[in-house]
Design a protein that fits this description.
Elements lengths: L1 E2 L9 H12 L12 H4 L3 H5 L2 E2 L13 E6 L10 E6 L2 E6 L5 E2 L22 E10 L2 E9 L3 E4 L9 E3 L1 E3 L11 E8 L8 E8 L3 E10 L4 E11 L10 E8 L1 E3 L13 E2 L3 E6 L4 E5 L7 E7 L2 E7 L20 E7 L5 E7 L10 E7 L9 E10 L10 E7 L10 E9 L12 E9 L1 E10 L6 E9 L6 E9 L2 E2 L3 E6 L3
Parallel strand pairs: 4-12, 20-34
Antiparallel strand pairs: 1-5, 2-6, 3-7, 4-5, 7-8, 8-9, 9-10, 10-16, 11-16, 12-13, 13-14, 14-15, 15-26, 16-25, 17-18, 19-20, 19-22, 21-24, 22-23, 23-26, 24-25, 27-28, 28-31, 29-32, 30-31, 32-33, 32-34
């Protein structure tokens, strides 16, 4: 890559925050250079033909533990970002160099591209490489591409859900706004570094922000994040909602909402939303693919963590050798410090296939900051596999919805929920375990039965429910109890109208 001479002294989070605050004090301006027209008109395959040459990776020639490779602008990614390297006391912009890319076969439109005329157009994003799975090969461990999206992998995982810097008016307000990271500063790692530190400047018509992200690759890759956001003064269209630490995923169908006509039993990047409240309660909400947008939330005085989780790791429940949904990571968000009162909000959108992310979860603080005043949040995102975050006692293994041997009436539903966990160890099959079931909305409980699962060693809850109003959703909660001891998290399900 082409490097320009040093232009600044030591650079850090406070420098980015100062830029964000300065931006917040003025009207939003999208001042980035226009992307060449021919790049915008590339087809999907033509854009995929443009590949970064690995031999040009940043720090490759220095044999450092991390390397950076870059994404070219084009097709879906037409807003350039600027990337800088921090090397000790120096900050050097990384200039776009067309010689660092392979533009693919000359038999398609790419033969008409003339990169020498473009100048320094910037990049669409970048990816981080590290020896994650074996010492002799640097795997792709994290990607920053598009708006404020980023995602990462732990050992043996495949890409699935994504994180975002910030969510603005995802629900409420006058329409969602997608802020984007416009510039990055990345610290050159030491020869023995096990983490990579980067800074990002966020900008949008109504919000600016500064971010410090430290990536720690491993069997569970962890990203330590500190963010400072500023609201712009915009009385004509004030911000109604800030979503902190947003996660975005996909749920097409699964055990609680079976698909039809597909050889794969389940298709999803995540199968549930897990929440740990400040008072120690654990909640599990199975995800669904609704017919119309569905928003639910969980209010609390303090949050200990939430995540979009892929608990089901059994390949036979997916049977997809290409997508390997059984290897998609869970993402657990752990607040650093007390975020105060607020709510975890879950937005579930309808999707006709698996190519669209339709699940969003985030934390909404109870109050918004005043325009121009900073609001700080710190958190960790844990990208997890088999050893994901779960309640210490018992959890939901699966929840199935559908008809059994006995037919159901049009206004009836059956659920079978399996629980497992250390809390059941040592309990005999005839232990007096009871279900605590609540019909929170639009449901009558006709029957609930708890019995030992002789195959798995866990316990099963069977529910028979009647919907009161067929045009409205119904909401249920259930957990298992042994005498005065709560054994499991609370299974909390919302079921839209049929």
């Amino acid at each position: 890559m082409l490097m320009t001479p040093a232009i600044a002294n030591a650079f850090g989070f406070d420098d980015v925050a100062a830029r964000a605050q300065q931006l917040a004090g003025s009207a939003y301006r999208n001042g980035d250079a226009k992307v060449p027209t021919e790049l915008k008109h590339l087809t999907y395959d033509q854009y995929r033909d443009i590949r970064f040459k690995p031999e040009n990776a940043l720090w490759r020639d220095k044999n450092l533990p991390f390397q950076l490779m870059f994404f070219h602008l084009g097709k879906f990614f037409t807003e350039p970002v600027h990337v800088n390297e921090i090397d000790g006391k120096n900050v050097r912009p990384i200039a776009f160099n067309p010689r660092a890319f392979d533009y693919g076969p000359l038999t398609n439109l790419n033969s008409k591209l003339n990169p020498r005329k473009w100048g320094d157009i910037g990049f669409a994003g970048f990816r981080v490489h590290y020896a994650l799975n074996r010492p002799d090969y640097k795997d792709e461990v994290a990607v920053f591409l598009g708006a404020s999206y980023f995602r990462a992998l732990g050992s043996g995982q495949r890409y699935g859900l994504s994180a975002r810097g910030l969510a603005i008016d995802t629900v409420g307000g006058q329409g969602e706004e997608f802020p984007r990271f416009t510039e990055y500063w990345i610290e050159r790692p030491a020869a023995d570094a096990t983490g990579l530190t980067l800074y990002a400047l966020l900008d949008s018509p109504r919000v600016t922000g500064a971010y410090r992200i430290v990536i720690h690759p491993g069997s569970e890759t962890v990203m330590d994040i500190h963010a400072r956001a500023f609201l712009r003064a915009s009385p004509a269209n004030p911000v109604a909602m800030l979503g902190i630490a947003p996660l975005t995923s996909m749920f097409f169908y699964g055990e609680n909402q079976p698909g039809s006509g597909n050889f794969r039993p389940e298709v999803h990047d995540s199968d549930g939303l897990s929440i740990q409240t400040g008072d120690g309660e654990w909640l599990w909400r199975p995800l669904i693919n609704p017919k119309s947008p569905l928003t639910t939330s969980f209010s609390m005085n303090e949050l200990r963590g939430f995540g979009l989780m892929q608990r089901d790791r059994n390949f036979s429940n997916y049977e997809d050798l290409e997508a390997r949904y059984d290897l998609r990571p869970s993402a657990w968000v752990e607040p650093v410090g007390n975020w105060g009162p607020g709510r975890v909000e879950l937005l579930q959108l309808p999707t006709p296939d698996e190519t669209n992310d339709n699940i969003v979860a985030y934390w909404v603080p109870q109050t918004l900051p005043a325009a121009g005043k900073p609001v700080d949040f710190s958190w960790r995102v844990h990208m997890q596999g088999e050893a994901d975050k779960r309640p210490p006692n018992g959890w939901t293994v699966q929840s199935r919805r559908g008809q059994g041997y006995v037919s159901l009436k049009d206004d009836e539903e059956r659920f079978v929920i399996d629980f497992a966990g250390p809390a059941f160890a040592g309990l005999p099959a005839n232990a007096p375990i009871e279900a605590v079931v609540s019909a929170l909305s639009n449901a009558l409980i006709l029957e609930d039965t708890v019995f030992h699962n002789d195959v798995t060693g866990g316990w099963r809850l069977a529910l028979h429910i009647r919907r009161v109003d067929p045009s409205r959703p119904m909401e249920l909660r259930a957990f298992l109890r042994h005498r005065n001891d709560t054994l499991t998290e609370t299974w909390s399900s919302i079921i839209p109208p049929r």
